[in-house]
Each structure stands twice: as structure tokens, then as C-alpha cells.
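Before relying on records like the one below, remember that each one covers exactly one chain. Contacts with other chains, cofactors or solvent are not represented anywhere in the record.
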Amino acid sequence: MPTVTHTPDALKNGVQEDFIKLTSALQGAMDEKNFSGREIDRLAIAHDASHYLLVPGGIVRPENAQDIGKIFAAAREHQIPLAFRSGGTSLSGQSSSDGILLDTRKHFKKIEVLDSGRRVRVEPGATVMMVNNHLAPYGYKLGPDPASWSACTIGGVVANNSSGMSSGTEFNTYNTLDSMVFVLPSGTVIDTADHDADAQLREQEPEIHEGLIRLRKRVVENPASVDKIRQQFSMKNTMGYGINAFLDFEKPVDILEHLLIGSEGTLGFIASATYRTLPILPAVTTGLLVFKNLIDASESIPDLIAHDTATAELLDATSIRVAQRTGLVADALAQINVENHAAVLVEFQGQTQGEIDELSHRAEPLWKSLDLASPVTMSSNPAERNKLWAARRGLYTTVAGNRPSGTNALLEDVVVPVQQLGETCRNLSELFDQHGYRDSVIFGHAKDGNIHFMLNEQFNDAAQLSRYQAFTEDMVELILGNAGSLKAEHGTGRIMAPFVRQQYGDELYEIMVAIKRLIDPTGMLNPGVLINEDKQSLVQNLKVAEEVEDTVDRCVECGYCEPACPSKDLTLTPRQRIVIRREMKNAEAAGDTELLNRLQHDYRYSGIETCAVDGMCLTRCPVHINTGDLIRDLRAKNQNPVAAQGWKVAAQGWGALAPAASQALNLAHLVPSLLPRTATQIARKVLDEDTVPQYNAQLPAGGRRRKPRANPLAEIVFFPACVNAMFGGVDHRGKADETNASQAFELLCERAGIEFNIPTGIEAMCCGTPWKSKGFTSGYQVMSDRVLQNLWLATRGGRLPVVCDATSCTEGLETMKAKVRAAAEYQTGRSLDADEPDFSRIEFIDAVAFTAEQILPRLEVKHKLDSLVLHPTCSMTHLGIQPQFEMIAQALSEDAVVPLNWGCCAYAGDRGMLHPELTASATRAETAEVNAREYAAYASSNRTCEQGMTEATGHTYQNILQLLERATR
């Protein structure tokens, strides 16, 4: 029978007892911090990108292959089911389980570039994007290129044999794998790179070795089996096991290695994979072919393939409309007056521009022969190309994000021979109409005959659930009737497991069952996935999204946000913060107040206190959710009235309080560090760790008081940030330096001949971020009114730009401007009158951008640095000024480095002092990379970020303006 997961009941499943047995068996063999049975953790990790929801009995985070072997042994002894989770971006249900979930994302992240980039060894927790970032300096990249590349991990890419936009079958994992290290359910570890790997397998696993030989013989001696396999695997195909390995290889270890690819965690654990990489083709041109209908577009694909297009991505009419609604598309898409139109995104790639020009020239007669709705324009402009690709890559999540609240977005993935593509698309559209699916989209990798289509479904409605089952049965008949595969690249998972026999026939299905029985005889690994005879499993353990609030309701649980989150390895990710809000709603709806209270209690620290509200999740989210805004709103709703009033008073008296904080730091430096540290420790215990910052000896002394400066010749208004007045500047040794970022910027302006003023009342002004991030709305309003009114006067009604010397404060001022204007228009229900201040006219520029563009060209760098490492900030990302930051750095040193592992430091104003463990976790990877060598200087562009990185690395970070000022003396 169809079932919808009721999580309060699922939390009580019997597998929780298995978790207790497993932890007892592994006591002393693994670090206890790598085990969690907490309800909030189990519910958080239960949600992946699929429409299935199974709550694990517990979570284990192994650190290495040896840990995996220990876990396998204990699980085998106690008959405990196991499953693996890494990125959680899989769509078919293969990364969810009600057994014990092994989370491999936290510890398995090593990336080792080999042979000058021609090969790369990767652990399963590394994302495709991070691997490609490591390879890019060498001019190489991975073959697989899934659309979820920024979040999907190598574990999933191997386990699903993922492909993507341009990899096809030629460059997927199966065809670009060099070797792997795998762990079998018995605990046997094999490195297939070893010259005697097959002998090791024969010695340690004789039954498996002999069994694979026997199965291969059975396959190759059956002509019907050989023909079926060759036909099915001539296309993209991730349905069932990769039994083409029996035809492609003879040695059992090679067969097993390739059976593990695409096995979805049902045969063993892949501890590392070594890939043969592809050269990055630097010359690229991209264009859009707009057709009058989907059939014409589909039927053009064979000709496009014949003209050597590297990609041919199909978008139907609904896909185009959805992309247009984002307002972020390229002109070629924006200008389509959509009726029944369809489009194909094509790209030519080559080593030189000459190659691209030749390919484009050869294609011109084809463009003219096609019945297109508009002329073809090919572009090599990166901005235009990125817009075209952004529309395609973000299509699924954009469509899903606009679904009706309470519904699930289902993305299906099928493939047919290219010559059958047009007819299949036509028949698929007819099925949508027949079953009442409106606004369903068809898009995908048309060059491979691989299309995706999306449905919105309400699983709580029995009638709609029956419709979904009937549609699926008809869709299966359609695809298999056209000699296709029900899964091209998303993996069989739970959704298509019941149809594996139907696709391959009894003989080959029995081969697959025999593979599973041979390698995992107890069925311990990922039961119910890939091999499952139960036809009802398609509609069991379904996910239903309760309506909570707009931010939460829009989330499609894709997980794209997670790699950018600074708390991902400490507490919760943005996706998890959102799904726990849904689970609280579930508990409330079920009347389970005890569960609700426990979740709320744990969420305070894991969800609210350890969120840096840095907004980096927004930079990755395809439906534009800033989970930081959600957390700020929750802080505002749950604020302590006494604290809120105190922060309002602080805003009102900021002119006295900010200098007092500076003096307190000066005083702290005059006494033994033990005294202020002990005082703050006591205060944190008496009051609250989320209220009182922890003092540490690495904090600098206080800075100089800010003073106004009148200048009738001013070209700019300088807004020195209060954080630079509270925290004094430091030199490269960490000693007090009178020339902090504010003074450095003033000196640079004077040196470059740029006139500036500083607003009257500056000593009482702040960007408002401390109030906004903590949810203290009353204090934020007080500060906003004061700052914008004073800046309106200082800028002469918005005629002079405002330059701020702390990047997060520049972003804070931009946000303040937008919030105040929006609030004014909302409250009055009208546009502003002509005589009212229009704060939107105030232009804010960060000092880094202003210096790079206006000051640097006027100065001579006289004292270059031997080397320099940079820490870009999250605010820098939001403002889009990292290129200017790097421009200054490159002027200072020929060896200016941005770490590959840089990310938000999570110091977040005082968050790093309130919860030092957050910054320690957020910066761990970057710190290891930075400390792998010595640099002459360490730089950032925000005082608290500099402090966070100083504490994390043990090296003194300075503002890059200080370094430039010193270098141009």
C-alpha cells in the first residue's frame, strides 16, 4: 500500500535499537563524537533531494576505510542494515534509509592531484566543484559534469555513474576511472591500482572471485544477453547494475570495480576513486536555437550531433517561461514570445579560437536549413554564456521552487535512442494531458537522447497518488517500448527498482540478483534500493512537505547550499535548518508536544546560535533562499525583552558605547590576559554563552575614536566603520599599529589626491549589522534612521558616493538602505514624495573596490611583498568585489594566493567570540591549506574576519588597505 512517512512515528522505528547495538559493539574502536542518535540529527539527515523520507535509526561518521571495515563487521554480526550519505543531492531515493546512515561527507574530503593534473585521486566527500577547482590550475577537469556539480560529491557521482551536460557515456565515471579503493561487506579492502589486485581478491574473497568468473561466462555465452546489454549500454543507462562490465572486462577485480560504479551503495564502500581527467578546452562559443515547437527541436538533434556540438540541451515551452520569470536570463531567452516554442542550447568547444570559428562556420548552412523562430547568435562572451547556462542548470530547482505549497517536485530521468527522441517527447506530452499534469516541463541532454521531465504531486491526496502510479506505469511502457532506459543518470534508487526486471528481462535481472547475493550475501547494504521486487515500493515512504512559512515552503531540499555553509561540519546546514522547521510543524500537527519541545530545545544551539547568518547559502540556492534571513527572523521573534531593550539603548547611545568598548580592550591589554578571560567565562555561565563574548589574548587593543571631517571640496563621503575604531590595527607581528584600515584609507586618498569628508555624528553611527544579525529590530530601526538621515545630508542628497572601509559594513549599509525604503513604501502604501529623502539614491562603495579602481592607478607600489595569502569575505562575495580585492593583491605581490578552501570564517561580528567552535570548524580546511606554507603577509578586508583568521591560523591577518598604504610610502 502507498505510505506517507509520519516522522514522529518513524523516529521510534526498531532500527534505533540496532544503533544502540552498533555503538556498543564499536565502543573504544571509534571516537564517540562520530555517533549520533539525537532526534534532531536523524531528522535533519533524513531529508535529501528526493521525494522519499526514511528516518535512520542513527548516524555514524567514519573517518577512514578502517572505520568502515569495523562498522561493516559489527553490522554483519548484529544483522544491521547500513546506507551511505554524502551530498544528499540524489533524486531517486538511494541516499535515504531507515537503517543506520553512514555520513561520509565530513571526513572523506581529500583531493590529490596526480601527474600534473592528468589524474586525480578523490575521496567520496569532496564535491565535483572542489575537485575541478583543484584541477583548474593544471588545465584539467573531471569527465562527469552533473548540473548539481557545486554540491554533489564524488561518492554519489561514482555510486550513480553520474554524467551530465556534456560527458555523455564517453566521459562518465565508468569510462574515466583509473582505479579505486573499495571496502566489501566482509571488510576486505582492495586498491585496484595495485599490480596484484586481482590476486588479492582471489586470495581474500575466493567465492566472489570465482562467482564473477562464473557469472561472466553465463553472460557472454548467451547471445541474447550480449545483444541486450550492448543495446542498453549504448545509451546513458544507470538502471540496475552495470552488467556491461562482464563484456568489457575479463579479470574479476576489473569486473567488480566497474560493477561498484553505479551500484548505489548496495555492494560496498568506495573509499577513494582515481580519475583520468580531461583537458579544459579554453575556446568556447554558446548559442540558442529557438524552434516553433518541441518536435522540430527534438528532430534536429541528429544533425546537431553530426556537426560536432559539444552539448545540445533541450528546453520546452514551459521551461523557457519559467526561466524568463527569473529575470536573470540571456537576451536570446528573454526575447522569445513563447507559445509552443522550444529551444536547444548548443555549444562548440576547442583548443583555439580558430577551431571554434571553423566549427561555427561549418554549422551556418545547418542553421539556415532549420525552421527556426529567430536567427542564431553564437557568443563567446562569458557573461552571456553564463546566463544561458544558468537558465538551464537552475531549471529543475527554479520550477520546483515555484510549485504550490505542500506539493512535491518529482524529476524523472529517461533516455531513448536519439532517433526516437522526437516521438518520445510527443507521446510524453500526450501522457501529461491524459493524466491531468499541467505545466510539466521537458528538458535535458538531447544530444544523448536523455530527457528530464518534472511533475508536481500532492502525496497526501489519495486520488493524486493513484494518478501518479497510473502515469508511471504508462511512462514505463512508453520508454521501454521505444527501446530506452528508465534511468539515464540519476540512478535506479527506490523509484525505479520495481521495474528493473521489466527493462532487462528475467535472465539479466537474475544475473543482477546473483551479483547482489554474491557480494552482499546478508543484504546489509542499502536494502530496498536498485533490487526490489515490491511494485509498491515506488509509493512507499513518501515525503510530504508541511506548510510552514514562505522561506521554508520554497525550499526543494536540493542541498546546493550545504557546501557553502560555515556550520556544515559542526551542527546543521541551511537545508537542515529548514527541514527541522518542517519537522517541528509535523510534530505540532501530530500533537506530539514532547517531541516538539525537544526539537525546539536542540534547535536553539544547532539551528539558531551556530548560524553565522552570512548569506553564503543564498549564493548557491537556485530558488534564492537566504536561510540567514530565516534565522534572523527567528531571533527577532524569540528575543529576550531585556536584551532587546538593552540593544535599543545601545543604539541610542552608540556615540559613547563604541569608544567605551575600545577603552575596555585597551584596559584588557594592560592586565594579565587571565583576568578578562576569567571574567568573561564567569559572565557566560551566569548570563548566557550566546550573549557574552569570550575574551581571548589574541584580541587586539582598542582603536582610535572616529571624528567628523568637513571638506567643501569632497569628492566622496568616507564612512569609517565603528569596528575599526573598537578594534585597533595590528602589524604583521600582531602588535598594535596606529595605521589601521581607516587611517590607511585616509592616507591613500591623500596620497592619490582624492578629497573626502567624514559625516557629522560619525562617532554614533554604525551599519546596523550587530542589531540586524541578532534580530533586535527596535535598535536596528534607531540606528538606520540616524545613519541614513545623516548620510543624506553628508552626500548632499545622494550626489556624493559613500565609501566604507569594512566590507561587511558596506553590505550592511546597502541592506539598511533597501530595508528602510521598503518599509517606508509599505507603511505609506505609496512612492516617496519629491521632498522626502530618497535613500536609494545614496551610492555605497566598498573601500576595496574604490581603492582598486580609483586610487591604485594613481600610486606606485614601491615595496612589493614576496608572497601574500588572501581571505575573501562572504560580504565581498555578495557585493561582487573579489576581483578588485585580488587586483590590489596582485599589485602588492606576484605571488598572491586565494586558498582553494576559502569560505566564510563564521566570526560574523561577535559570533566567533560567542561560539569559538563555530569559527574553528568553519576555517579548518582553509587553515590547513594556509599553514601548509609560509607567506610574507596575510590579508582580508574586514576587521572581525581578520581576527577570525588570525585566531584560526596563528598568523596575523591585516586589512589589505594597510598593506597597500605601507607599500606605497
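DSSP finds 44 helices and 28 strands in the chain.
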